[in-house]
Amino acid sequence: MYSLLFNILVDLLGIFFLFYSFSIIVFYLLTTVLSALEMRDHLRKNKFADYKDIITSPLAPSISIIAPAYNEANTVVQNVKSLLSLHYGKFEVILVNDGSKDDSINKLIENFQLVKTEYAYNESISAKPIKGVYKSENSSYSKLTVVDKENGGKADALNVGINISNNEIIACIDVDCILSSDSLTRMMRPFMEETNRQVIAVGGVIGVANNCDVKDGTVTKYRVPETLLGRFQVIEYFRSFLMGRMAWTRVNGLMLISGAFGFFKRDLVMKVGGYFPKTVGEDMELVVRMRRYMEENKLPYKVGFIPDPLCWTEVPESEQVLSRQRNRWMRGTIETLQLHQKIRLNPEYGIMGMVSYPFWAIFEKMAPIFEILGVIYTIAMIITGDISALYFIGLFILIYFFAIMISSFSILYEEIAYNNYKSSKDLNKLIKTILIEPFVIHPKLMWWGLKGHWDFIKGKGGWGVMIRKGFDKATDKQKVTE
Known about the structure:
The protein has helices spanning 2-48, 51-56, 76-84, 104-112, 154-164, 183-193, 228-250, 266-272, 282-296, 319-339, 350-365, 367-384, 389-417, 424-440, 442-458, and strands at 63-69, 91-98, 114-117, 130-136, 144-149, 169-173, 178-179, 198-208, 213-215, 218-221, 261-265, 301-313.
């Protein structure tokens, strides 16, 4: 009896893992096709778009750029100057100093001639108390507002910035990101071109700035990072942004906009209560909550995405820092999915409830667990002789070459659309990274994901320390400050 039950269990597990693997293959094939169609349409529109008209148009939405900063004294002045130099008609920059322990606020006061003002602060969204609001005596910096507040984390700092802001669109960015001079105009296009539905948010591509030349706040020369982990993240970002998020945009199922570079309708953000400070995945959670509001009120809407290279950031190149980042991403995903279980397989929430949520739950949240169990199951079957070595080798080769194909397509998309990495040496390095990624890097990602699950169960919170190299203000070259 027990032997029969055991055999049935083994058979069911085999069917499950086979179905799971087949589902992944089908999904990524669909993603490849959908993202290609969306990219084609975007590039066609770009041929006829005149972004100078957006800058001068009286119909162009006004923008409040909100940049939280914590202990950014070494680079904050240069970063703010870069933000103030963006090409757009109606925008303001709100720098929120989130209780920094260094001399960030003093450097800002000194370099931008700031004075403390009697600002009528309306706390529409609950947040930590503010210490002061500063404006410049120099008219050249009239678009800048600096808020000094008690430390409360990134989400809390963003909520303060939202309370301070006055414009139609809020642009939430990481202060250490590098933005293209025309980033605002390009991100505004989706908000302006839709007529039958409201665009509630727009996300953008995040590029990897490691090892690139940067001059006057702009990437002037692209190079792939020197380290294997850095190059892996270049490919990963191609897959995530140019393929994954483009495909989700095609079916209006996008649930995540990167917290480093996201634009939102301010009135809707206010209605849903701003960012939720008690999660480390505040960027994803806000998008899901905004979408829920629109679905529950039967309002036609869209979450847009711009694949143009407009924003660059430094990615971690040490395993210690990268593991903390991926741990946090996993915990944030789990928290968001648990907070919004109501939409799971609920047809009232359309694509988000029936497709997006199940995908994130099965192929993102549960992926590390399923993959580890699959490996254990396969090894057990080989040992017991239930799976032949030849069958296993054939299956492994199929999965390996499929992974290589998907990553190769992501590089192809970037080369066709933007061709930023022009050096054949760089392309060779990326191809070599693709070939070894499944063996060297992917197992570590699965392990870090499992640790994220375990830390979530233990109730661990917080972001962890994210050490960055930064950019030297004098030469605009990267330097190590660890």
